[in-house]
Amino acid sequence: MKKTILTIAVAISCAVTGIYANETNNDPVLNTEVSTNLELSSFCKAIMKGDLETVQKLIDLGEDVNKKSLGMTPAHFAARYNKPEILKVLINNGADLKARCDKGYTVKKYAELSNAMEALKVLKVAMKG
């Protein structure tokens, strides 16, 4: 009886909060499955917004430039959203440009899929050196 009540409570909780383990993202570039950990890091949010000042402050405070959020590294986000200046800062602070997201894409592939020409230029220069 206790198991039944607990199972029903969990099911209702998930239904009310809208958490579905197999829900998928409709973004054709990202196309990632949504898990119960739906939090995008503040660091990656700042990257997506193009907030260079906040990105630099967080790095100065010890933010890991290779820590994944939603399956992608900060460099993936910078490439995906065409933020070349932020991408340069990440590279200068040790971003791994060969890292793959959880779907297997490289930073360069995200830039290509997003037609992020400025980010591609930064990556081209960085990968030569």
Account of the 3D structure:
It is a single chain. The protein has 129 residues and is mostly helical. The protein contains seven helices and no strands. The protein starts with a helix and ends with a helix. The chain has helices at 2-17, 42-49, 52-60, 74-80, 84-92, 107-113, 117-128. Helix content is 53%, strand content 0%.
What order do the helices and strands come in, and which of them pair?
Elements: H1 2-17, H2 42-49, H3 52-60, H4 74-80, H5 84-92, H6 107-113, H7 117-128
Helix pairs in contact: 2-3, 4-5, 4-6, 5-7, 6-7
Note poorly predicted spans.
19-24, 32-36
State the helix count: 7
**In percent, how much strand structure appears in the residues?**
under 5%
Counting helices, strands and paired strands, the structural category is mainly alpha
What would you report as the Rg, rounded to the nearest angstrom? 18 Å
Choose one word for the global shape: globular
Mean pLDDT: 83
Report the end-to-end length measured between terminal Cα atoms. 65 Å
Which descriptors apply to this entry?
7 helices
Short description:
The chain is mainly α.
